[in-house]
Amino acid sequence: MQTDFSKKYINVFLGLGSNVGDRAANLKVAADLITKNVGKIAKKSHLYETQPWGNTDQESFLNQVLMINTTLDPRDLLEKISKIERELGRERREKWGPRPLDIDILFYGKRVIRDKGLEIPHPELHKRAFVLVPLMEIAPELEHPILKKQVDELYMACDDLSEVVMLDA
């Protein structure tokens, strides 16, 4: 990846998940591809094992949150992470179905984007413990630009009581 220093770097938070194949290896390869194609990883949470959300009749997930620095605009970012998902075998067959890799854009700086196929901040993040716990680990004071609450406050108000277990402490 060639660096263009004339562009402004944006802090972006990505949520990663995997429940097919070697889940930890999938997340590691995804992080390597993100570094190569998207931007520098500034912070990363531990890995967490979580129960599936939405469709609960599937294997448990490993989840992680990354903070990256990128110069990509939101659409280009979405395109690059979608390509990484496909490279690792993601096929979109069913909503909340099993997948070797899922990457969600949680936050893109403080921007709010509501566009066809792209909603930032992620519209469900405040309802999901598997996102909030690793996000809280690396950015507890990050404020949601719509809800005007910090991540730790969102977690305390979250109704999702599913277990989120740190694996690699």
List keywords for this structure.
6-stranded antiparallel beta sheet; Alpha-Beta Plaits; 169 residues; two-stranded antiparallel sheet; alpha+beta
What does the model show?
A hairpin with a 2-residue loop joins strand 6 (113-115) and strand 7. The protein has one domain: Alpha-Beta Plaits (2-Layer Sandwich). Helix 1 (23-37) packs across helix 2 (74-87) and helix 3 packs antiparallel against helix 4. The protein has 169 residues and is an alpha+beta fold. Strands 1, 2, 3, 4, 5 and 8 form a six-stranded antiparallel beta sheet that branches. A two-stranded antiparallel sheet has the order 6-7. It contains four helices and eight strands, in the order E-H-E-E-E-H-E-E-E-H-H-E. 27% of the residues lie in helices and 25% in strands. The termini are far apart.
What's a concise summary of this model?
The protein has 169 residues and is α+β, with helices and mostly antiparallel strands.
Task: List the SSEs and their pairings.
Layout (H helix, E strand, L loop, with lengths): L9 E9 L4 H15 L2 E5 L3 E3 L10 E10 L3 H14 L14 E7 L4 E3 L2 E3 L8 H10 L12 H7 L6 E3 L3
Antiparallel strand pairs: 1-4, 1-5, 2-4, 3-4, 3-8, 6-7
Helix pairs in contact: 1-2, 3-4
